[in-house]
Amino acid sequence: MRELKIVGLDLDGKHIICEGDDPADKFEIRVDDRLRAALRGDGARVAQTHIDIEVTNMLSPKEIQARIRSGASVEQLAEANGVDIARVERFAHPVLLERARAAELATAAHPVLADGPAVLTLLETVTSSLVARGLNPDNCSWDAWRNEDGRWTVQLGWKAGRSDNVAHFRFCPGAHGGTVTAVDDAASELIDPNFDRPLRPVAAVAQLDFDEPVPAPPEPAETPEPEPKAEPTARARRGKPAVPAWEDVLLGVRSSGQR
């Protein structure tokens, strides 16, 4: 076994440069966890392979399920911990089913109002509220996760126009479906029995005057001047022709007195 002498570090500081008996023989040693452990005298750590170290850094199945149950998504958990998404999905699947079941049970619970639990279920109440606001309840999404205190938080998501909205409820399983309590303002408005107002306040629109202007009275028409009367014609001045008498007609006497 040849003995090497440390010369120094390379420019990036990730390798140790060594040389042998002949200064022309140069060697590089990568600075990794095993080398650091060897310098500390940690023999057990030195014996680990690179694959062993990666497995140690991975999340355990119990940790994966605990984080998924508390509300994390598969994609978020895999990206945050540098873990293959397929590995997370394998252990997250039963917990995701548990969350979906909790959300389904919560929709059958009864909202708690100021005077006690409502008769209608959460699903019936929310459906009526959204329909009254002109929204389609079929486009809603439900989710649930368990908090650190062991209770369930239920989330309702819906879309209004181009905005994505969410409301959160606290679900307590129990007799007759259990109860749900509003956590935020959006949830309170959804289960409010007087839900005749929009979920989001809308600025008042300035009142516009749409009254038609009163038309001006028509100007009086000018009275035409009377046309001058026509002078009587000669025929009119002569008058009507004379009518012969009855006896003249019988005797054949003309109007001029000749027979």
From TrEMBL:
Tree of life domain = Bacteria
Write down the InterPro entries for this protein, in alphabetical order: DUF3071, SepH-like
Question: Where are the compositionally biased (Pro residues) regions?
Answer: 214-223
- From the UniProt entry, list the residue stretches annotated as the region Disordered: 211-245
- Kindly give the NCBIfam families that the UniProt entry links to this protein: SepH
Protein name according to UniProt = DUF3071 domain-containing protein
Enumerate the spans annotated as DUF3071 domain: 1-171
